[in-house]
Design a protein that fits this description.
single chain, 130 residues, alpha+beta, 434 Repressor (Amino-terminal Domain), three-stranded antiparallel sheet, 7 helices, 3 strands, 54% helix, 16% strand, globular
């Protein structure tokens, strides 16, 4: 098969989100967890540190960092606060009915990279971290 015929990751993801309701539901459910996982992984890569080194900075165990990096475990507010303080990042999570106009939170999030944005069950969800 020629490389030019291969579909991109975005194309495969778009198709699965469109055609598979159970996949879409799980994708939306794990949006915050994925955003936090990507932030932690990028931070470790930038700082060139291991999970164990990051765990020491956060005063947690290495398996705790690993669970967050898996993108399958939703962090609670305490966890987001700890990550914000230690990593020097800001988290913004905005959940509202989808029919509402752009909020102040979304305007503020424009300054930070939006990691996930989707509509689910009549609610618009925006996750930004930076």
């Amino acid at each position: 098969m020629r490389l030019s015929r291969l579909r991109t990751h975005d194309a495969v993801l778009e198709r699965q989100l469109r055609d598979d309701p159970s996949f879409r539901e799980e994708w939306e459910r794990t949006a915050l967890a994925r955003a936090v996982a990507l932030l932690i992984i990028r931070h470790r890569a930038k700082e060139r540190i291991t999970q164990k080194q990051l765990a020491r900075r956060l005063k947690v165990s290495q398996p705790w960092v690993s669970r967050l990096e898996s993108g399958e475990h939703d962090p609670d507010l305490h966890t987001l606060s700890k990550l914000a303080r230690t990593l020097g990042v800001e988290f913004m999570v905005n959940v509202k009915p989808s029919r509402h106009r752009m909020s102040l939170a979304k305007k503020a999030a424009e300054k930070a990279p939006v990691v996930e944005q989707f509509t689910s069950d009549g609610s618009r969800v925006l996750v930004a971290a930076g």
